Every structure is written in structure tokens, then in C-alpha cells.
Amino acid sequence: MNCDDARVLMHGHLDGELELADDLEVQRHIEDCPRCMREYAALRAMHSRLKDEAFRFEAPATLKEKIRRSLPAAAMSRSNGYQARRGAWVQRTARFAVPMAIGAMLALIIAPRAMAPAINQQLANQVVASHVRSLMATHLMDVASTDQHTVKPWFNGKLDFSPPVNDFVKDGFPLVGGRLDYIEGRPVAALVYQHGKHVINVFMWPTTGAATSAERIETEHGYNVEQLTVAGMNCWVVSDLNQMELDKFANLIRAKG
Amino acid sequence: MDAAYNLARWLVRDDHDAQDVVQEAYLRAFRFAAGFRGGDPRAWILAIVRNTAFTWLKRNRSESPTEFDEKIHGGSTEEIGLEADAVRNADGAMIRAALDELTDEFREVIVMRDIEGLSYKEIADAADVPIGTVMSRLARARGKLARSLQGRIGKER
Q1: What ipTM, to 2 d.p.?
Q2: What is the pLDDT of residue A116?
Q3: Do the chains contact at A55 and B76, CB–CB below 8 Å?
């Protein structure tokens, strides 16, 4: 390999983007050629300098709000256009499809990138671990019942608070039971819901101090985690369900809270 | 969305204008949501941000957008050897100024790769260039930036 080739390929090497054979060949050239070695060292130093957060402009919070507000408005004008041009059945489709598209866009683009860093990482790990444990052991439920009036009283005397228990069977998320769990050094209520074959764990405990009602979504080890505050309860929703459906479920909980 | 704003901010070099660009890009993205054929949503939205930014620059700034000419920017640049120490000694303001001086096409690959951490595939999708072009463009962009930093450091001494 000559220096001209190496001076291009060393970038692929630096970025981990080369096929193994090329990668090894560049590596060998860099080690043997003092000039290319100096060049590579300089590029690597520059690359790590640029990774500094100081060079990354963070979007102002007001912008996120502005966009969030302007998107549904655009959706409305769009579905009106459909109505004028095509039949009413298309409008029905659009009415259904557009909010789905908004949900998908917000969930895919805005939420995970913008909000993920804000989530309490340690807590997210804990709830995912609890979720996984509940599925591994035969300890998914202490009280197996689809009746919210059986599940809610069961927590009496076991917790120093009474979690809101609702059944969402009409919306495709039936309640299947509840159990006690232990998160952040305190006993918490865990409600178990099902959607198809997916199990959803909802962990609840009273909020302490600065409560936030902002929803936060995060993917953790392939599980989706959503945090919300409902009726003074810190509420963590965990499942292997896709983000859109989990979001739908979280909205049901929020609506009841 | 931070990625969208970051790219727009580096391309139009102004906070207020970057916000306008991102907002317009999201509206466009929304209108063309049906055109999204799967793949990486981040690269898709960044491609729209980039196009919106370039259109915006053409419309609102008197300066003509830097036409990218592979011939002018191609070939081996200055034959100055690079030194890691020069890069390490550059302060933030110096790096920002050097980045701002690059042509848009060079600046955007560095922003996407070094600052935003996109893969070559994502950059190819976002900047609408063949994946084979990403590495060579990045090589020239980084070479220019590093030499510019070295020049600035040299002047200071």
C-alpha cells in the first residue's frame, strides 16, 4: 500500500468502517511509515477533540415545543385536502393514519434523541431488570385477576399507598394481575397487563419531591421503557412491545390518571 | 431532533435561522412522511434538514452557495505533514472558526461524522452521495481542517 492510498484509507480505519483485510493493511502501513503515523495520530487527536459536547449545538427547548405544536396543525390541513379530493372513506383513513404518522415521527425522531439523556438511567436499568426477572421466574403475579376491584384491594396493607388500577381490555390491553416489587429501596406496586403475547409491567410508587409530568421514552436492552407521572404516582411502563403501541398504552394510563 | 438542529446550526451558522430551517424541515418531513421507505429515520430527517438548509441559504443569503467542485477540492492538498500536538493545542474558538471556513460540503461531513457520530452509510443517505465518496470526502475535509488548525497555531506563536 502506498502513502496516497493510506492517507484516504486511514480515515476508514479511524472510523472503523473498513473491511478486515483493508483495515489490517492500513494498520501495517501506518506502523511502518513514520509520516503516515504522524498524520494518523493528528487525525485521531482531532477526531477525539471534535467529539467534545461543546461542539454540538443543542436544540433550544422552545424549538421542540414549536415543532410539536405545529405538526398536528399540518396534519389537519392535510386531511382536509384528502377530503376535498377523494371520498369520505379516505378521510376516515387519513384521520386514522395521520395521528399514527405523528406518533411515529415524534416517537422515532424527537422523543428518543431529545429526551433519552434526561431519563434516570439507573432507575431505567432497575425497572427493566425487574421486568425481566418477573418473566424469568414464576413470579409474574402475586394476585392473578383481570378484575381491577380484586387487584386494587389486594395492595391494601402491603403498601403505604393505593395505586390506581384500571383495566384497558376494551383497548386491547387487559389487566392480568399485580404483585409487589422492590425498586429504589422501597416496595412498589407492579401491575401486569397483556397485549397479544406481550407482557407489560407497570411499576408505581408515590412521587417524592420534584415530580415531572414529562413523558420519557427510552430503549434499554431491547425493552422499551416509558416514564410518566400519573395522579401523584411515579409510573414506569416496561415491555418488549414496540414503542408506538407502548406509547398508546401509556396514553391510556395518563388519560385515567 | 438535537441532531437536526446541530446540523442546521453548523450549515446556516445562526441560531435563529437554524431554528427556522429545522421547523421547515419537520413540516416537509411530515408532508412527505408517506415517502419514507423505511431505513434509518435519523438519516432521512437529516437529509431533509440538509436540503432545507441549502435551499434556505440560496434564498436568504446573498452569498452564492459554495459550488462543490471535485476538481478544485480534489487532488492532494498542501504537502504539510500533520502534527498531533498542533491539533491538541487548538482551543475551541479556533476549531469553530476553522470549521466555519470550510466549504459546506466539507463542513457537513465533519459535523455528521466527528460531531454527530453518524456511520458512513448514514452520511451517504443524508448527504445523498455514494457511500464510496464518503471516505474520500471526509479525508479531504479532515485534512483541510487539521492543516487550517495547524496554520492558526503557527500564527499564534
Answers
A1: 0.86
A2: 38
A3: no
